[in-house]
Amino acid sequence: MIHDALIAPFTANGFMANALAAGLLVAVVCGIVGTFVVLRGLAFIGDALAHGVLPGVAVATLLGVPGMIGAAVGAATMIVGIGFITRRSRLSGDTAIGLLFVGMLALGVAIVSRSGAFSGDLVRILFGEILGVTGRDLLAQLVATVAIAAVAYTCRRPFLLLCIDPEQADASGFSSRLFHGIMLALIALTVVVSFSTVGTLLVFGMLLAPAATAALFSRRLGTMIALSSVIGGGSVYGGLLLSFHANIAAGASITLVATALFLGALAFRRPGGGAHARRAAGQELAPSAAGTPSSAREGATT
Amino acid sequence: MTVASHLRSSGPVVEARSLSVGYGKGAVIDGLDFTLERGRVLTLVGANGSGKTTLLKTLAALLVPISGHLRVLGAAPGASPTRVAYLAQFHPTGFILPLRAIDVVRMARYASLGLLGRASRDDEQAVERAMDVMTVSELREEPLDALSGGQRQRVFIAQALARGAELLLLDEPAANLDRGARETYRGVVRDLTRAGCSAIVATHDLEEAACSDQALLLAQRVVASGTPREVLTARALLSTFGVVARHGEDGVLVVEHDHGCDGDRRMP
């Protein structure tokens, strides 16, 4: 009974097994990148990139080239455009992001509406087709996941400094501009490789919800990334089962499960978190010690 | 290993001539001329918006000088991130960061570790000692967002110390510190300068400025420069802050305000 409900759907149906594999790869990549999106407050640009790929994918479909190439061009256009508008107009970054967000989305819809031939593809682009994942899609997702994990590991120190303050990165010899650009490129790559599975709209949910849930319980960056990936993986598994048994669109059910997990975690967690609860209870973490240290010289040197 | 054992340059730690600093092309302070020698502490004193932070950021290579000559440790600013530690005025607050206090202090070593360098025992010892002298060792496992403002400030000061730098650039380090923690911080800086380290400190604390070796009184220009005794005069402070308190001959605290042109006239 339990086996039939929880395992058989994946062992008896190849498309479900493929969907699970692709979804787990999306969960891992979104766990890594989503952690930095949440910590740096880049949700809006993540959302904009997820939508900004639409005209690129639409044009690629028209030209008969792989949608992933069009998505990459769309994402690159967004990143360059945001930087250009911010520098030239001195408008805030979120204004530039918002302008390009709606502009690119509108352009994508305009292209699709002029080409009735692939109106059905619009739904696929936006919501993905995880149940139709091919071996080729899986391979592309696997390569991207490994590449993103390698870059994120290599850049973990400047990325962490960026989370505290971009000036900390610069003062430590890491160009905040360069590593911010690399971070945006990772978000874009995540969106581009994930859109064929969970879709451009829902990849954004996978970027945010598991990482936000993990942030509620994590005290270390590595823990947050791992927890985020596990929560994402659980959302994929639960979402696919929900889709299979309740006949709900797979991409949407995955994102619904991820969002529900966040809301459940938020309800489960004490208001304000452990630290605030301790402070509210009047427990000082440590008194401020008085007096001048005698070993200051050794203490600050190596 | 101590600061003194890896001091490398022999000239002035900082040399500024006709220096103009600001944001973009808009100068905040013009005509800065000063030299900081090894083992000395220079305090930057001035009201909000006087240019203290702008000057510190320029020295830390976070801003590009608009014009003039500036050498830090014998090279252009930013040439040696491992030899300069910068403590910013503001630190992240109010949102989740999965970092413990010790993780924040460990970040000091990133400049020397680079992208892929592996932290050595020396790195870890530097972190432990910096936390020890700033009396935050007991907070090491606490999440950053669990710390009070003063505790967080001590952790970030420990971070600046853990770099083992020759030059400390500290932007209002004593802000948020209680009296005990302030004494601790001052003792640390005093010991470091005895070991050959130098510091430039932006402060509103005239007591701290009075204990330094040199002071620059700023008000979007250099109001006065020299030893604290030369710089922190009632006339100069009144001109800079628009208000000054001093003890009268009868021991009564007298607060004087600069109401336009009559301020200077009222000062002795």
Tell me the layout of helices and strands.
The complex is a heterodimer of chains A (302) and B (268).
Chain A: H1 2-6, H2 8-11, H3 14-40, H4 43-63, H5 67-89, H6 93-114, H7 119-127, H8 135-154, H9 156-164, H10 166-171, H11 176-194, H12 199-215, H13 221-246, H14 250-268, H15 273-280, H16 296-299
Chain B: E1 14-23, E2 26-36, E3 41-46, H1 52-59, E4 67-72, E5 84-87, H2 101-106, H3 110-113, H4 121-133, H5 149-162, E6 167-171, H6 179-194, E7 198-203, H7 206-210, E8 214-218, E9 222-226, H8 228-231, H9 234-241, E10 243-247, E11 253-257, H10 262-266
The gross shape of chain A turns out to be: globular
**Cα-based radius of gyration of chain B, to the nearest Å:** 19 Å
Report the sheet with the most strands of chain A, covering strand number, pairing sense and barrel closure: none
Which strands sit side by side, in order, in the main sheet of chain B?
5-6-7-3-8-9
The string of secondary-structure elements of chain B, in order, is: EEEHEEHHHHEHEHEEHHEEH
- Helical segment tally of chain A? 16
Straight-line distance between termini of chain B: 50 Å
Structural class of chain A: mainly alpha
Q: Give the number of DSSP strands of chain A.
A: 0
Helix content of chain B: 25-40%
Q: What is the chain-wise order of helices and strands of chain A?
A: HHHHHHHHHHHHHHHH
Averaging pLDDT over every residue of chain B, what do you get?
Answer: 86
- Average residue-wise pLDDT of chain A: 83
Strand content of chain A: under 5%
* Number of structural domains of chain A: 1
CATH topology of chain A: ABC transporter involved in vitamin B12 uptake, BtuC
The geometry of chain B reads as globular
Describe the oligomeric state of these chains in a short phrase: heterodimer
Question: Which second-level CATH architecture of chain A applies?
Answer: Orthogonal Bundle
Low-confidence runs of at least 5 consecutive residues of chain A: 273-302
